Amino acid sequence: MSRTMAADEDSTRVRLAGRRAKRILAASGACLGLLGWSHPEVALGCLAVFVVIALVVLWPSRAGMAQERMQAEARSELVWPGRGMKAIVEALQEPAFILDRGLLLRYRNPASFVAFGNMTLGDPFSLRFRAPELIAAVESAIRNQAPGQATLDERRPIERTWQVEILPVPAYQGESPHFFLVLFRDRTAERRTERMRTDFVANASHELRTPLASLTGFIETLQGPARNDAQARERFLAIMREQAQRMSRLIDDLLSLSRIEMKRHLPVNARADLVSVLRKVQVQMAPLAEELGMTVEFSPVEEAVLVVGDEDELIQVFANLVENACKYAESGQRVELSIAHETERGEPVIDASVRDFGPGIPPEHVPRLTERFYRVSVGSSRAKQGTGLGLSIVRNILLRHKSRLLVQSEIGRGTIFTARFPATASESPIQPLVQYYS
Ligand code: ADP
Known about the structure:
About 50% of the residues lie in helices and about 20% in strands. With about 450 residues, it is of the alpha+beta class. The chain folds into four domains: about 5-80; about 85-185, Beta-Lactamase (2-Layer Sandwich), CATH 3.30.450.20; about 195-260, Signal transduction histidine kinase, dimerisation/phosphotransfer (DHp) domain (Helix Hairpins), CATH 1.10.287.130; about 265-438, 2-Layer Sandwich (Heat Shock Protein 90).
C-alpha cells in the first residue's frame, strides 16, 4: 500500500471516529436528559454520568495524538524535504536545489546562494532560471521521473557555463519521486580551454595561410605576366623568400610551444646560474641590438645566482624578452638586464629583469600579452618579424620553473619584464628523476 493512500485512510478513520463520538454524546445526552427531567432526584447523577461519558469519548488518547502527529509529518514530507535529505544537499560543494513536482523550490544549499544569490523557498524555480533549455530539461525529468541534463550559459554578472543534472530522489516503498535534486557543476574552465584550443588552431591556420597565399600569388605572377621581366622576378623572389622565412619562424615557434607545453608538468631537475644565462643572452643578442642601434647592458653584482632551472630554456626566455625590447623599444636605445633579491609575502624570491626605455605598453593590453597570437599592434609585430607566440613561450617555460612573469610598463618611459623565481635553489637538494639506492 502506498504511503499517500495509507495517510488518506488514516485521516478518514479519524474523521469517522469524530463523527461517532458526536453521535454517542448526542444520544447519551438525550437519554440522560430525559431521565433527569422525569426523575429530578437522579438529575445530578445523570449529569455526572454525562460528564464522564463526554470525557471518555472526547479525550484523545496518547496513541491517537501520536498518530495524528505522524500524519501531519507525512503530509508535510510530501511538500518539504526531510532533515536527512537537506543535510546531504548542504554537504555538496557545488550549487544544489531540491524542487518538488510542481517545479517549486523546496531547498537549496549554501553553495547555490554564493553562485546564484538568494532565492525564496516556495518560489517557482523558473523565477531565477529562465533558460528555456534548462526548464524544459527539468520538466521532462519530472514528467518521466528519470534523470535529465542541460547546459546553462550565464552572461551576467560574469560569463559562466554550468552543466546541470536533474536527479529524481527515490521515495519510500516504490512511490513515484516527490523531489528532484538539481545539481550545478561549473564547467567554465573546461569550456574556456576548449575555446582556446579551437581559437589556437584557427589562428595558427590563419597565420600560415597569409604568407602561403602571398607565395602562391607570386608564383602565378612569375609563371604568367612577369615571366620575362627579370627585374620583377628578382623583387618577387625576395618577397617570396621573406614570406617563406615567416612561415618557417611560425612553425619553429609552434613546435617550440608544443614541446614546452608537453613538458610543462615535468619538474625541472637542474640548477641554472642566472648571471651566466643573462651574459650568454647579452652576447647572443648583440648583433640584433647593433643592427637596431641599441646596446644591451648587464653589470651583475654577484658572481653567480642559482635558481632551479634548465639553462637552455632560461636562455630562450631572456632571448625572447631582449629581442622584444630591441624590436619594440628601439627608440629607447638601450636595454638593461639585472638581477635582484626580493621578498614576496615574506618569502625570498629572485627577480631577473629586462628593462627597456621605449614607448611602453598601454595598460589594457598588459594582461593579455602572454596569450597566443596576441599582439598590441598586428602590423608592427609582422613588420618586425613577430609571430605573436614569443611571450606565450616565455610564460610556459616560466610556469614549468614555478616562476612568474611580471610586467610593469609606463607609456613613454618603457617596460620592465621580470621573471620571478623562488629563491630555493641553494637550499633544497635537486631530486633526480630516477633515484638509485645502494
Ligand atoms: P611577437 O612575436 O609579436 O613579438 P610576443 O608574444 O613576443 O609576440 O609579444 C606580444 C606583443 O607584445 C608584441 O606584438 C608587442 O606588441 C608587445 N610587446 C612585447 N614586448 C614589448 C616591449 N618591450 N615593448 C613594447 N611592446 C612589447
